From TrEMBL:
<dbReference type="InterPro" id="IPR000515">
    <property type="entry name" value="MetI-like"/>
</dbReference>
<feature type="transmembrane region" description="Helical">
    <location>
        <begin position="7"/>
        <end position="31"/>
    </location>
</feature>
<keyword id="KW-1003">Cell membrane</keyword>
<feature type="domain" description="ABC transmembrane type-1">
    <location>
        <begin position="58"/>
        <end position="264"/>
    </location>
</feature>
<feature type="transmembrane region" description="Helical">
    <location>
        <begin position="240"/>
        <end position="263"/>
    </location>
</feature>
<keyword id="KW-0813">Transport</keyword>
<dbReference type="Pfam" id="PF00528">
    <property type="entry name" value="BPD_transp_1"/>
</dbReference>
<dbReference type="GO" id="GO:0005886">
    <property type="term" value="C:plasma membrane"/>
</dbReference>
<protein>
    <submittedName>
        <fullName>Binding-protein-dependent transport systems inner membrane component</fullName>
    </submittedName>
</protein>
<keyword id="KW-1133">Transmembrane helix</keyword>
<dbReference type="InterPro" id="IPR035906">
    <property type="entry name" value="MetI-like_sf"/>
</dbReference>
<feature type="transmembrane region" description="Helical">
    <location>
        <begin position="145"/>
        <end position="164"/>
    </location>
</feature>
<feature type="transmembrane region" description="Helical">
    <location>
        <begin position="64"/>
        <end position="83"/>
    </location>
</feature>
<comment type="similarity">
    <text>Belongs to the binding-protein-dependent transport system permease family. CysTW subfamily.</text>
</comment>
<feature type="transmembrane region" description="Helical">
    <location>
        <begin position="104"/>
        <end position="125"/>
    </location>
</feature>
<feature type="transmembrane region" description="Helical">
    <location>
        <begin position="197"/>
        <end position="220"/>
    </location>
</feature>
<keyword id="KW-0812">Transmembrane</keyword>
Length: 277
């Protein structure tokens, strides 16, 4: 029986959505970023580079994104290693829980952390009473790193778990027969094979953190200077309406993410381990 429609035709709706909601906004941002008071130029980028306020937003966004992504990657790596060593209902329950928590972000996550670790949060008061902490502010740099790290962990597990599943048991057995211990196995076999997956996951986590808006806005509103907060303010006109300047700042964000992606690709190219199926 002949197919009613060619296979490529089913991709047309997805292509239209991609063009309308991805390429078109990106193109508009790229054009308007260079539009300065009826002329074309680099005025907006000079303003960003010369402004301490915008440089602080870029620096804080990079700092929080890098720290939370690295912490999330480390915790996700340890969690994936543990998941591959377990089986049965516990493993299925943990995978299901990870899938659920990966979708728990934005405003609900911010409110949950306010209840748990706010100024009068349950966990904050408990830790203060036992003397583990003197003071902790969820609305500061450290508080944002904690909440960013939390929503990075489930995403990191979902991305890394298939790579850990691909590590064959016979590789560990062969290394053991050759006299290699656990540390030597991970140093010379496990981690080098996982390097592309780790680099790719770190890139996605950084992009996820750099673009986060709903959670941080619900938590600190505009009181903390981050790139996404500043872009939203410039577009909505909370302080002053400058959508073209917002486009330039968004283009800087895209450039930073592109640079991170290039570094990730360089790391992947330096990985010489190829697994034959």
């Amino acid at each position: 029986m002949k197919r009613l429609l060619p296979a490529w035709l089913w991709l047309v709706p997805f292509a239209l959505v991609f063009v309308a909601f991805q390429l078109a906004p990106l193109g508009w941002i790229a054009i308007s970023a260079f539009h300065v008071e009826g002329a074309w130029g680099l005025g907006h980028f000079r303003e960003i580079a010369g402004s301490t306020f915008f440089r602080q937003a870029i620096g804080r966004s990079l700092e929080i994104s890098l720290i939370s992504s690295l912490l999330g990657l480390i915790i996700a790596t340890l969690a994936c290693h543990s998941l591959t060593r377990t089986s049965g209902p516990l493993r299925r329950w943990m995978i299901a829980f990870t899938n659920m928590t990966s979708n728990f972000a934005g405003v609900p996550l911010a409110f949950a952390f306010i209840i748990l670790m706010g100024a009068n949060g349950v966990l904050t008061i408990a830790l203060q009473r036992v003397g583990l902490i003197d003071s902790f502010s969820l609305y500061s740099r450290n508080g944002l790193i904690v909440i960013y790290t939390w929503f990075q962990i489930p995403l990191g597990i979902l991305l890394l778990f298939p790579a850990f599943e691909g590590l064959r048991a016979e590789w560990r057995d062969a290394a053991s027969l050759l006299g290699a211990g656990r540390i030597a196995y991970w140093r010379h076999i496990g981690l080098p094979i996982l390097r592309p997956a780790l680099a790719g996951t770190l890139t996605i986590l950084i992009a996820n953190a750099m673009g986060a808006y709903a959670t941080v806005y619900a938590l600190v509103n505009t009181s903390y200077n981050l790139m996404t907060i500043r872009i939203a303010n410039l577009v909505s006109g909370d302080l002053f309406l400058q959508p073209n300047l917002a486009s330039a700042l968004a283009l800087v964000l895209v450039g930073l993410l592109a640079m991170v992606t290039l570094i990730q690709q360089w790391i992947v190219r330096r990985s010489h381990y190829v697994v034959e199926r």
